[in-house]
Amino acid sequence: MSALFSTIIVASALSLGFALLVDQFLVERIAIIGSFIGLERTLNSGVAFGINLPEHFQMFVIFLALFFVAWYASKDAKTNASKVGFGLIIGGGLANIIDRLLDGTVTDFFQVGSFPVFNAADSCITVGIIMLFIDMVVIGRKK
Fold first, then answer.
1. How remote is the C-alpha of 69 from its chain's centroid?
2. pLDDT score of 1
3. Strand-strand pairing, 30-33 and 106-112
């Protein structure tokens, strides 16, 4: 199995697993570093940073974005770093879609300072983007 598909499976399973655990067990905020960092369950009906779009349009945009990333990955993911990066983005996106389909919201639970609360899937997407950027800059210079 390729690094792309393995990463999609692991990222989506872990992200969705964390969301389900938080939904089941996190009933009040858990401080990790005082009020600055903690675990706090919030339900997000919007997209990135809680931005709300009309419901059907929002789902269309999410599916379209995920389709585009998957299509681009199938054509462009050549290095292991790019395969893992795309896999993290697609896996995180799938986990958020599945979580949203369960009850209409995405479960967020990482609270850091005044930054919007986010989840493991969001972290996968962010790390994947960073990996693709680094791969593009580092590998791009070597070509």
1. 13
2. 66
3. unpaired
- Rounded to whole angstroms, the Cα distance separating 1 from 21 reads 28
| pTM metric for this prediction | 0.91
Helix 120-142 vs helix 80-103: crossing angle, to nearest 10: 160
* Boundaries of domain holding 105: 3-142
Strand-pair category, 37-44 with 106-112: antiparallel
- Pairwise CA distance, residues 43 & 107, whole Å: 5
What is the pLDDT, as a whole number, of residue 28? 97
CA–CA gap between residue 143 and residue 138 (Å, rounded): 9
Confidence at residue 140, expressed as pLDDT on a 0 to 100 scale: 67
Where does the chain have alpha helices with state H? 3-25, 55-76, 80-103, 120-142
Burial class, 54, CB count within 10 angstroms (exposed 0-12 / middle 13-18 / buried 19+)? exposed
Residues designated as active site: 108, 122
Domains in the chain, number: 1
The separation between the first and the last C-alpha atoms of the chain, rounded to the nearest angstrom, is 27
